[in-house]
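Async update (no meeting this week)

Hi team, since we skipped the sync, here's where things stand on the single-chain job. The sequence we agreed to prioritize is pasted below, unchanged from the tracker. I ran it this morning and attached the output directly underneath so nobody has to dig for it. Comments welcome in thread, and please keep replies under the output.
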Amino acid sequence: MESSPFSFLMMTCQVGAEHVLKQEILSKYPEFRFSYSRPGFLTWKIPSCLIQKDKMEIQSVFMRYCGVSLGKITGDDFAKNAVQFWNRIGERKFDRLHVFPKDKATPGESGYEPGLTEESRRIFKTIVSHAPEFFQNKPRFSFPEIEASKGDTVMDCLIAAPGEWWIGYHQAVDWRSSFPGGLLTLSMPSDAVSRAFLKFEEGLRWSGFPIQTGSRCADIGSAPGGGAQALLCRGAEVLGVDPAEMSPVLMKHPRFTHLRGRINQLKRRYFRKSRWITTDMNVSPNYTLDVLEDLVLHPEIRIRGMLFTLKLLKWELFADIPDYIDRIRNWGFNDIKVNQLQFNRQEVMLAAIKNPFHR
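Output:
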């Protein structure tokens, strides 16, 4: 526990979502006091009594990473900074070391995708090489990409800018907080037909949906087929619905079927065998929900789970997210979560499933 009555939290988010995250945090945690921000990075002053046993679990749609701040280190000499790092953390015990950058730009902008960088990996190695003797050569500190286990205390080095390191710590409490900065090491396969592959590959891991060989999925608004590819990689049978042409890569796949047409013009009997729905339509959230509602409430269709994006065509729509969740819950989905994931743009990913689940 810190001796001061106040502590500071540091958070990361998507570049452009800072004001939304700020409003969300202030509405949920009125005892927090906003301190400082720059694109993709915010800090908060909070009562130290809120931090117990190195655990600070914040519920947020737009926050990617959150840790208790121990202040910043500045300078261009990695070795000198690494010495300061160890001096700063002192006798604190921890299980993992995470070194990660904040985002430089919006995901997908000019080819940029969030993730660990060569610089963050070099800094990780420099910090480890300057560690006390007892720390070095431990397998759990060998690679910058190693994820934490639930319950681990993680020491964080957030690279906010060249020569600016923010030091802190957090406890891994869920899937997202186990990765350095909440960032997966995930890249586009050479045959991926669109970046929707990244969105849904991340979404499938985050949701934990048991989609596997033989699972029957309907991908609404599928063209050109990036999201469907993520499903096919798990062995699923995929029905791709879209009036536009699909990529030849998808059309050649033996477990992919293209149902060409608009969803509201197609007979519902085509979806009788589908148990999972994915969609990434560039339309308003209410339109997406109208389409899904028409399917999941049809008496001949038995959907077990849905994974889809809701486009925030204007940021103010974030205030309606609780209403969207209530609407989906009324369809019989009792396990719902929503988050702005690493590869989302001005949108959120929503996962909904009917539990208990029996395949």
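Quick observations from my side:
Residues 6-182 form a domain with the VC0802-like fold (CATH 3.30.2130).
The CA atoms of residues 83 and 303 lie 55 Å apart.
Reply here if anything looks off.
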